[in-house]
Amino acid sequence: MMAPGTSWYVGAGEAREIRALLTDFLADTAANTAMLLDRGGRLVVCEGEQPAFDLTTFASLAAADYGANDQLARLLGEPEFSGLVHQGERDAMHLADVGRQLVLVTLFDVRTTLGLVRWRARPVVQALAALLPRLQGQNAGMPAAVVSADFASQAEAEIDKLFGG
Amino acid sequence: MSMINYASREISCKLVYYGPGLGGKTTNLEFVYEKVAPASRGKMISLATETERTLFFDFLPVDLGTVRGFKVKFHLYTVPGQVYYNASRKLILKGVDGVVFVADSQADRMEANIEAMQNLYDNMQQHGYDLTRLPFVIQYNKRDLPSALPIADLQQNLNPGWVVDDLARQKPLADPVHAGEWLVSEQDGQWIERAQWFEATAITGEGVFDTLRTVSKRVVQALG
After folding, report:
1. Residues of chain B with pLDDT under 70
2. Domains in chain B: how many in total?
3. Whether residue B134 sits in one domain with residue B178
4. Residue A138 — pLDDT band, cuts 50, 70, 90?
């Protein structure tokens, strides 16, 4: 059983490595934006063109979309769908699983092709999956806890202000 | 499973409102949406049927503000209560940091409450999460209705408690909200813990913020 407080920790080093991977990926594919989110619907990193829409909402919907399709795959007797594509008239998005924990979302348009995005996404997904243990706090180099008792008491004061009713 | 992003200086936590169909989960979120300052909340998303029953989930992001240099965000979700939407319910629990169980106080909804509570335990277990170790609050909703059962009946059926194995936690803990009640107490030689609970009438907002305040405080306490 998972204890409370088991978290994603995205340190500066991890964020730098993720951004470098995604920057190269975008350069290789001419896609517009690459995002990494967790299966729970939270955004880790957004690289490339910053979309005009609300990223929090997008991450929530995209993770649910991917999760639902994952379940559809199982219903069909497939262990997973290797990727998911939504194609519009001009813009499209590609979603790929990263170690069953994260989702790589790529936004692209007519300047590139789905085949190229898919092909170039594969090694990126593998490299991102290799970072998972570090993102789950399984390294010793974690910064001193920001979430001290002091943090909790200050956060609780903010909660009283915001949810005071 | 909170996300602490040291690079973007953000912490985001996921709260899920669970419970039987038509129990008031969406009403809770709608009230929060109406009352929280617009600058502190995002757009509320509802994936609902044409009859406004929750089909997949409702989603409301709320920004707590900056605490010790970190932007703290709560992502509030509801699940569809209807029995046959279990796949959706289970999906939404992924990565949850805190759970609010919204029970319907009406006598004829007791079976549905019990079924939903069992389903919550089952789905949490299937994700590998231990509900007794996560921030977990029960809200007894619809207290304004004449058919609402006494709290004692609801507590007996929905919040009978679980055995506390951790020796450090085997000490009396008074319920801070209800005088004379205990969250942790010794009974017949066993230490039993119950979830914190609140009475509510979500349609008027009564009890909505009491519930949310408590579960969100427990989530930030658990971050350490």
Report:
1. 224
2. 2
3. no
4. low
User: Does the beta-carbon distance from A163 to B57 stay under 8 Å?
Assistant: no
For the stretch B27-80, pLDDT in tens is 999 999 999 999 999 999 998 887 878 888 999 999 999 999 999 999 999 999
In chain B, residues 137-196 whose CB comes closer than 8 Å to chain A: none
Residue A4 has pLDDT above 50, yes or no: no
**Number of structural domains found in chain A:** 1
Instruction: Judge whether A71 lies within some domain.
Output: yes
C-beta of residue A13 within 8 angstroms of C-beta of residue A45: no
Residues of B in contact with A162 (CB under 8 A): 36-37, 40, 62, 64-65
Contact B96, B129 (CB under 8 A): yes
Average pLDDT over residues A137-145: 53
Residue A164 lies in a domain: no
Question: In B, which residues are within 8 Å of A151 by CB distance?
Answer: 67-68, 70, 220, 223-224
Could you list the residue range(s) of the whole structural domain that residue B179 is in? 161-194
Examine residue A155 and state whether it is found in any structural domain, yes or no.
no
Residues of chain A numbered 6-45 and touching chain B (CB < 8 Å): 6-12, 14-16, 38-42, 44-45
Domain check: are B85 and B182 in the same one? no
Q: Are residues B108 and B179 in the same domain?
A: no
Beta-carbon count within 10 A of B193 CB: 17
Query: Over chain A, what HEC string results?
Result: CECCCCCEEECHHHHHHHHHHHHHHHHHHCCCEEEEEECCCCEEEEEECCCCCCHHHHHHHHHHHHHHHHHHHHHCCCCCCCEEEEECCCCEEEEEEECCCEEEEEEECCCCCHHHHHHHHHHHHHHHHHHHHHHCCCCCCCCCCCCCHHHHHHHHHHHHHHCCC
**What interface predicted TM-score (ipTM) does this complex get?**
0.92
Q: Which of B128, B130, B223 sits opposite A147 (nearest CB)?
A: B223
Domain interval for residue A110: 12-140
| pLDDT at site B72 | 95
In a domain, A49, yes or no: yes
CATH assignment of the domain containing A116: 3.30.450.30
